[in-house]
Design goal:
By secondary structure, the chain is an alpha+beta fold. It contains 12 helices and 4 strands, in the order ααβαααααββααααβα.
């Protein structure tokens, strides 16, 4: 009221100064005339102050109280009541991680792709999905929104107008559907406002259903990708194994030998046997040379036998190891071991890839992610909106603030 008085004095002061100037221009004479003029001036100032106060009061009534009254009448008599339905859910991972049991198959599976998922990340995916236009398209687009929010029973200012672009529809959707997430627990809270209790519960249920479908599709794509990668690895490792076995078979056919190692053992046994026969022949020759002449047939036969055994042993040794020949058993063993090691390694990789593929196939048949509904959508019984008292206080405060700023500007300009 002090501000009203100040505004009244400022507004009335200009009028009183104009009237006082007119009165001052009137010629007076004597002391009685001066008293009359003074009384007239005081009366004029009083009337001007009263007029200024009334003008400030009327401006407050028209610019502040009247809009508040209009909103109160609209909210009480015309605004459609809004009902709030709330649902809460979270994303859970059903995959059991085995700690301390990392085998070769699991290592390969980590390389080609894992089917596990971060549930916190999936919860944020669901949150962004609900906030954006993708869910509107999946719900049915414009037809779905107009089914619930374009009814004739909804007042004009709350109703969704027909023919709006998708951006305006998304703004309307966000003003009626709010979603938040608890970072600690990963629980999503979805609040849906509609102008019918059943509509609010239906929309909340549809959001719950589509969010679960989204999470399942993400999990399915991840598992399908893991299976496809595992299948590619099986084919590659199988091709490598077939190539290694083909090289080993070609080597055996070319050298006409199954296992050079077994051949080396056989040659070694033959050398040992011939060596024993040579020792026996030398013993016999030594015995015969002491009793018979060196030119006797028996002596010559024993010497020839020893020479023959020496040539056979030397030939077998040359066949077993030689620095200038590639057909020796030692060189065959080196080539064979290289091809055999390559074949064994390819076989191990193939077994690991096959086990990884079988595991990915088993995981594909399981549902890895679940949307767990903690609080299902409930049918609201009492209207949550509009909050008339709270809205009235906000409206009164904002309009009063704007009026005070405007009045201050007017007073400043008048000064």
């Amino acid at each position: 009221m002090k501000f009203l008085a100040l505004l009244g004095r400022r507004s009335g002061g200009h009028a009183s100064r104009r009237v006082s100037a007119s009165v001052a221009a009137v010629p007076v004479s004597g002391r009685s005339g001066m008293l009359v003029v003074g009384g007239i001036r005081a009366s004029i100032d009083s009337v001007a102050d009263d007029m200024g106060k009334r003008r400030g009061l009327w401006s407050y009534v028209v610019l502040v109280l009247l809009p508040c009254l209009v909103y109160f009448v609209y909210a009480v008599g015309f605004e459609t009541r809004g009902y709030l339905s709330e649902t809460r859910f979270t994303v859970q991972n059903a995959q059991k991680q085995r700690i301390g049991s990392i085998d070769a198959s699991s290592m390969i599976q980590r390389i080609i792709g894992s089917t596990g998922s971060d549930t916190g990340r999936d919860s944020y995916i669901a949150l962004n999905y609900i906030k954006n236009s993708a869910i509107l398209v999946d719900l049915g687009g414009t037809a779905y929104l107009e089914k619930f929010y374009s009814k004739r029973s909804i007042d004009y200012f709350s109703r969704l107008q027909s023919g709006l672009p998708i951006e305006r529809q998304l703004d309307y959707w966000r003003s009626h559907v709010s979603v938040s997430i608890d970072n600690l627990s990963g629980i999503l809270t979805v609040r849906v406002t509609a102008y019918d209790p059943a509509d609010a519960r239906t929309i909340a249920g549809d959001i719950n259903r589509l969010s679960e479908a989204l999470i399942n599709s993400i999990s399915l794509r991840s598992r399908q990708d893991a299976l496809n990668n595992a299948e590619v690895e099986v084919r590659k490792s199988g091709s490598v194994l077939a190539s290694a076995r083909g090289k080993l078979l070609e080597y055996r056919n070319t050298n006409r030998i199954i296992d050079p190692g077994q051949r080396a053992v056989s040659v070694g046994d033959t050398i040992a046997k011939l060596t024993m026969e040579r020792v026996e022949a030398e013993v016999s020759l030594d015995v015969v040379s002491h009793s018979l002449n060196e030119e006797t047939p028996t002596t010559r036969i024993l010497r020839q036998r020893i020479e023959t055994l020496d040539r056979q042993i030397e030939s077998l040794k040359m066949n077993l190891t030689a620095s200038t020949s590639n057909g020796t058993v030692s060189s065959q063993i080196a080539d064979f071991e290289s091809l055999n090691l390559e074949e064994q390694f390819a076989e191990k990789i193939y077994i690991i890839s096959r086990d990884s593929y079988l595991r990915a196939r088993q995981e594909l048949e399981k549902q890895q992610l679940y949307l767990v509904t903690i609080v299902p959508p409930m049918l609201p019984e009492e209207a949550a909106y509009p909050k008339i008292g709270w809205n009235m206080l906000i409206t009164l405060f904002v309009l009063s603030l704007l009026w005070a700023i405007g009045a201050l500007i007017v007073v400043t300009i008048d000064d």
